[in-house]
Amino acid sequence: MDIRLNNLNKTIVNCKKCPRLVKFLHKVSTNKRKQNINEIYWGKPVPGFGKSNSKLAIIGLAPAAHGGTRTGRAFTGDKSGDFLFKCLFNTEISNNPFSNNLNDNLKLKSTYITNILKCVPPEDKPLRNELSNCSSFFDEEIFSLKKLKVIVTLGKVAFDNCTNIYKKKYQSKKKYIFRHGEIQDLPNGLIILPSYHPSPRNVNTKLVNEKMMTELFKKARSLAKF
After folding, report:
1. Is 171 exposed, middle or buried (0-12, 13-18, 19+ CB in 10 A)?
2. Which of 44, 56, 182, 191 has the largest count of CB atoms under 10 Å?
3. pLDDT of residue 1
4. Helix (H, G, I), strand (E, B), or coil: what is residue 30?
5. Which residues 6+ apart lie within 8 Å of 183 measured at CB?
């Protein structure tokens, strides 16, 4: 990770801009799940991870309460992450089929993973001002990836927020429609590839499955050319 991203991540971790989210982070980290009762929760905003020369970015909406908020890494330590990393391993983007904690020796090939919102919101529903507060972090983070070619967004809310950030930055009026696996162009020439979220609900209802998600990441890797 380069110095710019490293400094940004330090700023993200120390951010306390949103009182509601700070309060909720404390609540989640204090009222732990039974299976995690003896663990020390990360309990802070969760920065992205990966190398600054990545050609692919994977974007979620926010960390999970007992996933990233517990472990300190996006899509780590929860069922959505378990499914995601199995598919990333299938496409040789990840060296492991799991992401458990910050010390699990996980390595990504030319891929950066982050969330638009860096703190878990109550009921997974961020307020507009919270998204606005975090958008400056996301802007700097994503534009620090100088070799970026493809963005995969996980879920419609992440897709809508990501496209809105680009439309606002480039004063574009282009309409974007969420369709799983459909290639669309962003105003600055990047490709955005929307995906259903790998949540247990979507997996259990068969809205998405391992083959579908693996094929999507094969497509993303091919488009990113790595």
Report:
1. exposed
2. 56
3. 62
4. helix
5. 191, 193, 219, 223
Identify the segments of the chain with pLDDT beneath 70: 1
What is the number of residues in the chain?
Answer: 226
**Which CATH class, in words, describes the domain spanning 3-34+45-224?**
alpha beta
* Cα–Cα nearest to 109, from 46, 181, 56: 56
Compute the distance between CA of residue 59 and CA of residue 46 in angstroms, rounded to an integer. Answer: 13
User: What does the buried/exposed string (b/e) look like for 102-138 if buried means 16 or more CB atoms within 10 Å of the residue's CB?
Assistant: eeeebebbbbbbbbbbbbbbeeeebeeebbebbbebb
Place of tokens 């970026």: 148
pTM of the model: 0.96
- Environment class of residue 20 by beta-carbon count within 10 Å: exposed (0-12), middle (13-18) or buried (19+)? middle
Report pLDDT digits (tens) over 115-131. Answer: 999 999 999 999 999 99
Across the chain, the runs of DSSP E, i.e. the strands, are 49-50, 56-60, 111-115, 150-154, 184-185, 191-195
